[in-house]
Amino acid sequence: MLYVLFTIGQDWCAAPAADVVQIVPNVTGVPLLGCPGLISGMMRYRGEAIPLIDLRSYFTGQPCATAATTRILIVKQTSGKQRWSFIGLRAERVTSTIRLASGTFESTELSTQPFLQGIAVANDGNMVRRFDLSGFLAHVASHIDAKDEVA
Question: One digit per residue, pLDDT tens: the chain, 151 residues?
């Protein structure tokens, strides 16, 4: 299976390439007042305003660095109320893909995040976490939907 590699802080992650619609250059995005904290702003994609989530900020509290290798993974939203067709995920060091068998990832059962599904050793010896984009988007949708119910 083909995976897109990126980092969150110092940790390498691999997301199934089939779940990524497109990889686009980094944009700042437009911050919105009253927007849930996990959404760093909105951006335009194919004529539509879509939410932008900074993965490093979500996990570490520090935003992604402004670098040539910081890019946005465009993914199709398949969870929650589906307000948007797509969501942008900003990630660092998005420069390559890797081919790994699904069984390569060993369960660690140490993560409190269900969308981080095991660890594999890449060809260069680095440890890589499997990042389940569908699971992450379901998690994001549940937070946004819960905020709507409170409002």
Answer: 999 999 998 999 999 999 999 999 999 888 877 766 678 889 999 999 999 999 999 888 898 999 999 999 999 876 556 667 789 999 999 999 999 887 888 877 666 676 787 888 887 888 898 898 888 888 877 766 544 443 4
How is 44-55 classified by DSSP, letter by letter? EETTEEEEEEEH
CATH of the domain at 128: 2.40.50.180
Total number of domains constituting the chain: 1
Using a cut of 0.70, tell me whether the model's pTM lies above it: yes
Residue 21 structural domain: 2-150
Inter-residue contact 128 to 116 (CB < 8 Å): no
